[in-house]
Design goal:
The complex is a heterodimer of chains A (167) and B (293). Chain A has 167 residues and is of the alpha+beta class. Chain A contains six helices and five strands. Chain A folds into two domains: 2-76, Ubiquitin-like (UB roll) (Roll); 85-166, [2Fe-2S]-binding domain (DNA polymerase, domain 1, Orthogonal Bundle). Helix content of chain A is 39%, strand content 14%. Chain A has a five-stranded mixed beta sheet, covered by helices on one side. In chain A, strand 1 and strand 2 form a beta hairpin. In chain A, helix 2 (85-92) packs across helix 5 and helix 3 packs across helix 5 (138-157). Chain B is built from twelve helices and 13 strands. Chain B has three domains: 8-54, Uridine Diphospho-n-acetylenolpyruvylglucosamine Reductase, domain 2; 61-174, Uridine Diphospho-n-acetylenolpyruvylglucosamine Reductase, domain 3 (2-Layer Sandwich); 179-289, 2-Layer Sandwich (Enolase-like, domain 1), CATH 3.30.390.50. Chain B has helices at residues 15-25, 38-43, 79-84, 86-91, 93-100, 105-108, 113-119, 125-132, 150-153, 230-236, 243-256, 267-289; strands at residues 8-11, 29-32, 51-54, 64-67, 70-74, 136-141, 144-149, 154-156, 159-160, 167-174, 179-186, 193-204, 211-220. In chain B, the strands form four sheets. A five-stranded antiparallel beta sheet of chain B has the order 4-5-10-6-7, sandwiched between helices. In chain B, strands 1-3-2 form a three-stranded parallel beta sheet, covered by helices on one side. A three-stranded antiparallel beta sheet of chain B has the order 11-12-13. By secondary structure, chain B is an alpha+beta fold. Classes of the chains: A alpha+beta (167), B alpha+beta (293). The interface between A and B is medium-sized, with 30 and 29 residues.
Chain lengths: 167, 293
């Protein structure tokens, strides 16, 4: 069957088998390998992407289901202004060791901050509770997401400040 | 790599369209909503439908609303939407209690209420919750609509009252419950219940001398017939909700369920959990009735 999907603002048309899972569509058909493929059972959360702005586990969504819809992956986090604050947070706070869970963690973090710009540590832990980090790095992941929240609050507070710093 | 076997895929554009597609593909076709139960089963070949009818685009089934004295929850309502629904939480805190402990936030973004009920997994939380509040399932087929109490909708593990060619449309919950609560024990965040209990109570009479006009007690994952503790409900109905009577009802619920031993624990432990959780849920519901959270 033929599907057309908007991924990170680019429209892709592909001929697929109905049984193709979204995670494999992204990785194997579009070569967007930033989205990782983990447990296959919607437990580990390394495959989290946005489907029409909502984070989902792409190992448990058929590519056929996203025909005509918009997907955002980790490749769509950075913009012309540079890395997303969530990505900067993970860099600043050592939010990753092996990096396998990182794309999913960051997509969930971005969605969390978009709806709750000032989450508590507990709210962050609940938000990522469907995602596993086998390097046991949760402490730094939580810290990274808090860093992004605080960075965005500071930028919002002083729009001009950012320009001054750049200048 | 876990991948489903081959199947035909159709995207339904309306309930009528979905019903016609089901009729066209016959008994080996399945409706897919969030897919978070069906797709994992297809990967493992525990289910191998020849055709999937995708109803994700049926927005008319994704509504939560009050209609004619009932809370109506569309079959395509995502778990996250039920958890976010202020109107559902106001009338039935049991749904928010349960949704907070169903899977994880990302799975809840995709999984649906209708899918959960139709899966009829013995460990699924909403079955007991909807039984506790005495909800009704609205079912549609090409021949028209019919309603079935959720207590009769769930026939057994993975078996419902739906016949070939029918779709669950919505769940209707009569308003008028005084208070409700859901209590669950699981081994880790997002896991299936070792045991869980949902209760809904309706009081009448003057404050101070109130009696329980109606009680609903739903049991999850412990082999209760129709997911309910009928004997405990019968015991409580018509009397006050005192601590002593709650303890006795909890013990009755524990005696009458049929848990089996598995990796989540032995039978005696699960019965003990049923007693503890039934008492806890009843106590919490009564406290809520008296204005506590």
């Amino acid at each position: 069957m033929q599907i057309t999907v908007d991924v990170n603002g680019t429209s892709y048309a592909r001929e697929i088998e109905p049984r193709l899972l979204l995670v494999h569509f992204l990785r194997d058909e579009l070569d967007l390998t930033g989205t990782h493929w983990g447990c296959d059972t919607s437990n580990c959360g390394v495959c989290v992407v946005w489907l029409d702005e909502v984070p989902v586990k792409s190992c448990t969504v058929l590519a056929a289901m996203v025909d005509g819809k918009a997907v955002r992956t980790v490749e769509g986090l950075a913009s012309t202004e540079g890395l997303d604050p969530v990505q900067r947070g993970f860099k600043q706070c050592h939010g990753l060791q092996c990096g396998f869970c990182t794309p999913g963690m960051m997509m969930t973090a971005r969605a969390l901050l978009d709806t709750n710009p000032d989450p508590t540590e507990q709210e962050i832990r609940v938000a990522i509770s469907g995602q596993l980090c086998r390097c046991t790095g949760y402490e730094n992941i939580v810290r990274s997401i808090r860093w992004a929240a605080e960075y965005e609050a500071a930028v919002d507070f002083g729009d001009d400040l950012d320009e001054e710093v750049t200048a | 790599m876990q991948v489903p076997a081959q199947f035909q895929y159709e995207k339904a554009t309306s309930v009528g369209h979905a019903l016609r597609l089901l009729a066209k593909y016959g008994a080996e076709s399945r409706v897919v909503a969030g897919g978070h139960s069906l797709l994992p089963m297809m990967k493992l070949r525990l289910a191998q439908p020849e055709a999937l009818i995708d109803i994700n685009d049926l927005d008319e089934l994704a509504l939560i609303r009050i209609d004619d004295g009932e809370l109506c929850v569309g079959a395509m309502v995502r778990h996250a939407a039920l958890l976010d629904s202020a109107v559902a939480g106001e009338h039935f805190p049991i749904f928010h209690d349960a949704e907070r402990v169903i899977a994880d936030p990302i799975v809840r973004n995709r999984g649906t209420i209708g899918g959960s009920l139709c899966q009829a997994d013995p460990s699924e939380d909403l079955s007991a919750a909807f039984c506790a509040v005495r909800a009704t399932a609205v079912i549609e087929g090409l021949g028209g609509r019919r309603t079935v109490p959720v207590r009769e909708f769930l026939l057994g593990p993975y078996e419902t009252a739906l016949t070939d060619g029918e779709i669950l449309i919505e769940i209707r919950v009569p308003l008028g419950v005084s208070a409700s609560a859901y209590e669950k024990v699981d081994r880790r965040a997002g896991d299936w219940a070792v045991a869980a209990v949902g209760v809904a109570v309706r009081f009448d009479g003057e404050t101070g001398g109130e009696k329980l006009a109606e009680v609903g007690i739903g049991l999850t994952a412990v082999g209760a017939t129709n997911f309910v503790a009928v004997e405990a409900e019968d015991f409580l109905r018509g009397g006050p909700a005192t601590a002593g009577r709650i303890t006795e009802a909890a013990s009755i619920a524990a005696r009458h369920c049929h848990p089996y031993a598995d990796q989540r624990g032995p039978v005696a432990y699960k019965r003990s959990l049923v007693a503890t959780l039934t008492a806890r849920a009843l106590t919490r519901a009564v406290a809520r009735h008296h204005g506590e959270r």
